[in-house]
Amino acid sequence: MRRRARNWALAWGALAFGALVAVILGGLNPRIRRHEQADELVQRLMRQDLERSLAVMGVRYRLLRNYDEVVRATRTFEGTRAELDRVEDELGSDDSALLADRAAVVLVVHRKDQLIEDFKTGSAIVRNSLTVLPTLVAGLRGQPPASDADAGTRANVEELLRTLLRLALDQSPRLEVTAEKLRRALDVQLGQLNADQAATVKEVLLHADVVSTYRIRMDATIGALVTTPVVERLADIGAWHERALGAIQRLRTGVEVALIGVSAALAVLAMSLFFEQRRLRRRLETRVAERTQELVASNMSLNRANRTKTTFLANMSHEIRTPLAAILGYAELLEDPRIEVVPRAKFVGLIRRNGEHLLAIINHILDITKIDARGLHLEAVDCAPRELAEEVCVWLQQRAEVKGLRLDVTIADQGPFPHTLRSDPTRLRQILINLIGNAIKFTSQGVVAVSLSYDGSARGGRLLIAVSDTGIGMNEEQRRNLFQDFLQGDSSIGRRFGGTGLGLAICRRLVAAMGGTIKVESQLGAGSTFTVALPAVATAPAIRPRKEDPGQAPDGGQHRLRPGLPILVADDSPDNLFLVSKMLESAGATVEVAVNGKRAVEAAVASARAGRPFAAILMDFQMPEMGGPEAIAAIRAAGVDIPVVALTASVFKEDQAQCFQAGCAEFLGKPVSRDDLIRTLRAVTAAWAPKPVHAEQAPAAAPELPRAPPPRLAAVAEAAFDPERLLTMTGGDESLRDAILALAVENGPGQLADVGTALATGQQAAVQQAAHKLRGALLAICAAPASACASRLEAAAAAGRPDELDELFKALEHESHRLHDAIRAYREARSARPMRAAVA
Amino acid sequence: MQPLEFMNRLLSRTLVLGVLLPVLHGCSARPVSGPPPVADPVDELSAGGPITPVPAQAKFAPARVELGRRLFLEPRLSHDDSLACAGCHPLDRGGMDGRARSPGANGVLSPRNTPTVFNAALNFRQFWDGRADSLERQIDGPVNNPDELGSSWAEVVQKLGRDPSYVTAFAAVYGRPVTPEGVRDAIATFERTLIYRRSRFDLFLAGDTAAMTMEEKQGFELFQEFGCASCHQGANVGGNMFERMGVIGDFFAGRGDPSDSDLGRFSVTGRPEDRFVFRVPSLRLVSLTAPYLHDGSIATLRETVTAMARHQLGRRISDAEARLLELFLQTLPGVPEGSFGAAPR
């Protein structure tokens, strides 16, 4: 650009120079023209001067008989001279040489004018006399000669006339002398003539004298005017003009040469400008093309991203809508009072399942959004990768089993594998859950293998996690899209396999945040292998890789806690106590119970003092005597740091926050599912090491039971309670479910009676409390209609609507009776088959 | 960039040069000024003779001539708005007032006889002493002469400049307001149209022998024989040279009462030999412009012819000869051309 600007400046400069030159030459041109004109006029004047002289000579030699020609020649000459004067005045030259020359011309011309006029005047006189003389002579001839003398006089007169006539044309001195002699002779002869003749001869003599006198004067005049140096002086002027012209023309030539030079320079400049411009233009074109390409590319990727997002949103929308539609649809059905109790419970179960699914989706979205907003905080603590992997496998075992898959965790053979290393266990777990969950999701048969290895040779050490499956695999394009946000292998995957499509995207983010890499190798139809490499410093001695640890077999581990894991459960609700205890015991834990906070504190402190502290405490937060937070504070105050898992019906954020503030390690909402319970406890007791002395045997695992009751029986029970859902809550443990049902049958009437008693006393608070308790028990056995009645009663009591209470209580009684009938019928149906249920 | 486009750009950039160069070479042609010269159609027959027919005159733009005519008749050219050019040069009476000496606007008589304005354009100089070499310069004389129009150019321009019709006319003819140059040019141009020609004598010269009577022809013979044609020659029968008044005899001695106005050309040149030298007057309108001579001292043509023969030619001529000469001179004027007779508007 700078060069270009310079070029333009040069161009303008050259143009300005050209304009200057043009002005100079434009100024010169009139001068040149005038000089040329003056020169030409001078030439013309010289010619005209000659013509004038010739005209005079023509008169002199009688070739012309009037002066009009001379006058015309003079007038022409004067006109030309006036023009020359004008031209020279226009030139405005104050050159002294020219001024002198002009003055000289004026002088000589004036002189010549005078000479010409003199000649004209004199010549007329001479001509007049020469005209008169022959007349006079002829007159004399007409008279008869009087004497000899008279004859002699006549002869003389005749001779004089001839001489004078000749003299008019011939300037010979001889003729002058002759004429003079004749005049003298005639003078003498006058006296001899008569008066008339004498008078005539006198006249002749007079005219002869005129002719002689004026002829000499005229010839002198003519000589003078012919020799008047008009032409010479004009030539001086002409020479001056030629000199001036030459100088100017040399200047003009110089300027023109310079101008041609400048023109050439301009042409060269124009060429260079052109080439420069072309070069710039080409460069610009190239650049534009590049930019366009980039733009097209980025636009394409933008489009792709946009399409991806749109697809994702469509998927998400579908994913969210599907459960929402179910929720809303079933909720609508539930509003219809004509619906039987049994389908109601089923509907509620469907609503719940869909709600959970929705929650998972939303959690995923939140996760990824959180990571994207750089809200990811990484920990660097010691953790045991192998245990983490196994733990995840335990959680996911059920899903694998459902699909008939084997789920293996192995330590790769190469090199020592550290027991612990420094990393973020939470994120590690998340990555493992995602990868393994994914593998299970996309595999219909075969094995999902998790292989861990440690590369100590890498700088700072590297943990390698490989998750292989024998699933559907991917093609190249799917693989490319795999880790992109919101994109599954292809958009049809979501429909076929479900899921949010965000799992791997979350993984990629987590791995990247931890400074690692994630890769995938896959073959369509043959399975995939995801490999994660994370930098991690080994912090504990290496353990030899081992194929299998019988004591902690992952097989079925997702339902199990470590055998004899001591857990304290504190809850004021016997139903809950029973339910949770059974869940924990069925998972292999040893459970102690406390009916309120105070008891819990005593038990916890006692266990710690005894050197066998509980691995964890499950604590309800709303208990009589002493609430959860106070109990935790008391336990901590006693110097016991057993992890506490809060258990509460409240799902509000504030309450959760209160839990963590109080020192809880985890939080579980009621009703709690067996899976959640076990998983949470496994997590918080991961660091717990069993005391070698503790060797209490866990109850034997329950043998396989028939999966489902006969359809007919199930249909009977459906209205009052949902045995299927109850089974889900117990983690599929039918014996536990049966135990719970038995407990409900045993305690239910008493609790209903408590409500009746409270109602009878008219204490609404008591009614509310009793109803609340009953509701909890009913919820625990998934008796939706009855719990709904209890809930309505509770709400009416809380809202202070006593007139409704009786009615509601009647409904509750009715539902409770129906429930009990249903449970009884269900149990009778089940007990008709062989079973080994541990029913308390 | 395509080659053509490049050429276009190059051309447009070098166009300036293309414009400049011709300027540098002085391309501008000068406009031809003035009317083209009209060749004098001199009659072949009379080419070598002392007297030639009056040739046809150049034509001028009518508006220019008309402006000159108005100005010629314009009394505002005089100081007191009393006298126009035509006052001394009445166009219906041979172009002079018929007086020996003409009174100016102030009533003072002019020192010399008023020459006719007709055919004045054919004279080689103006005034008796030839002090003006053009009609334009002649006009300066009467305008500024206190004893003639008694005005000045400043006054004339001021007066005429107040008259919108003059302003318009000058603008139309000269594209300028009223100026002395314009007034001079207009009047001179008008005067150049004041020509008497196609006389019987001219017809005779052109070969029409029947155009003149025998006596007139005899008069012409005498005119040449006596030497009159030595000075009174050319198309205007005079007016193309200077000559001494009284070549042979002393005219002024006979007349008496000599004055400065008798010194003639001497007053202009100061040369002794120019004493009593005057422009030879044209005889074209001589029969229409009595009285005669520079002082208007002779009332009749015949007397004048006799006196001139005596003083200029040294010849005593008879009354019969004088009569023949007079008859000849009466064939010279011819008819006036142009439309000068219209009254001023």
CATH top level assignment of the largest domain in chain B: Mainly Alpha
The low-confidence parts of chain A are 544-556, 692-718, 834-840
Class computed from helices, strands and strand pairing of chain A? alpha/beta
CATH architectural name of the largest domain in chain B: Orthogonal Bundle
- What is the SS-derived class of chain B? mainly alpha
Number of helices of chain A: 24
CATH superfamily of the largest domain in chain B: Cytochrome c-like domain
The largest contact between protein chains, plus residue counts on each side, is: A-B, 55 and 50 residues
Q: What would you call the quaternary organization?
A: heterodimer
- Average per-residue pLDDT of chain B, rounded, comes to 84
In angstroms, what separates the terminal alpha carbons of chain B?
A: 74 Å
Inertia-based shape of chain B: globular
- Largest beta-sheet details of chain A: 5 strands, mixed
How would you describe this protein?
The complex is a heterodimer of chains A (840) and B (345). Helices cover 67% and strands 9% of the residues of chain A. Chain A has 24 helices and 15 strands. In chain A, the strands form 4 sheets. A 5-stranded mixed β-sheet of chain A has the order 2-5-6-8-7, with helices on one face. A 5-stranded parallel β-sheet of chain A has the order 12-11-13-14-15, sandwiched between helices. In chain A, strands 1-4-9 form a 3-stranded antiparallel β-sheet. In chain A, helix 1 (2-60) runs antiparallel to helix 7 (230-335), helix 4 runs parallel beside helix 6 (195-227) and helix 23 (784-799) runs antiparallel to helix 24. The longest helix of chain A is centred in the middle third of the chain and has 106 residues, at 230-335. The radius of gyration of chain A is 71 Å and the shape is rod-shaped. Chain A starts with a helix and ends in a 9-residue tail after the last helix. Chain B has 345 residues and is mainly alpha-helical. Chain B folds into 2 domains: 3-56 and 196-335, Cytochrome Bc1 Complex, Chain D, domain 2, CATH 1.10.760; 62-192, Cytochrome c-like domain (Cytochrome Bc1 Complex, Chain D, domain 2). Chain B has 14 helices and 4 strands. In chain B, the strands form 2 sheets. Chain B has a two-stranded antiparallel sheet. In chain B, helix 4 (135-144) packs across helix 7. The N and C termini of chain B lie far apart (74 Å). The chains are: A alpha/beta (840), B mainly alpha (345). At the A-B interface, helix 1, helix 2, helix 3, helix 6 and helix 7 of A face helix 1, helix 10 and strand 2 of B.
